[in-house]
């Protein structure tokens, strides 16, 4: 087991491996009812977007990752464009007065340009963003006929897996102990996001229920780790948790509509 913890995959390499698998599995035979799914957010949008591609396949879904320099839910936050997320990046332009206001003016047009059937918000959901979520959902709903989905916050471990689970004797004990070794400051986020979704008439899916069904977190998937750090997924995690979320009644309904 220590060999597994000592060999946690590098996130950059995992992202490339996910893209390679997606390309290898694509048959080029596009389904007649193929949906375009726009996934917006930060690094959690990357994980969920790749999870969708690995689970559904490019043949059934056209997944478009839409990055943002400014968090679409908070004018004051500074985030990193997805294509540059794991490369060298500069954030100076996001500190220029008015930059985020101008970005927000173009935000809806960026979504419309993707011509999505489904719009997914997948974020780290920092506390300062939550007051802006309702307004954002209302703005997007007013501008597009696409179905909208809010993803809950991914369960975050209190430390990297190689440290947090170092003393665990078995793979099963890692899963059994993971719920108690999560960061609890986000425990109310699902309830708050679900309430906003219900109030604005959009869909909601809990990542916590996908990763930790019945309060038992499946950090180990067979003999592979589902997490590459405290809150991001390995390819094994993307496939396992992605399948869980795609198979929910909520997501099935979105695909069928």
Structural features, described:
It is a single chain. This protein has helices spanning 2-6, 11-25, 43-56, 99-113, 130-143, 161-164, 171-178, 189-200, 207-211, 235-246, 249-256; strands spanning 35-41, 61-66, 118-122, 147-151, 203-205, 220-221, 224-225. By secondary structure, the protein is an alpha/beta fold. It has a single domain, classed as 3-Layer(aba) Sandwich (Rossmann fold). The strands form two sheets. A five-stranded parallel beta sheet has the order 2-1-3-4-5, sandwiched between helices. Strands 6-7 form a two-stranded antiparallel sheet.
Write a brief structural summary.
By secondary structure, the chain is an alpha/beta fold. It is 44% helix and 12% strand. It has a single domain, classed as Rossmann fold, CATH 3.40.50.
List keywords for this structure.
single chain, 7 strands, 5-stranded parallel beta sheet, alpha/beta, Rossmann fold, two-stranded antiparallel sheet, 257 residues
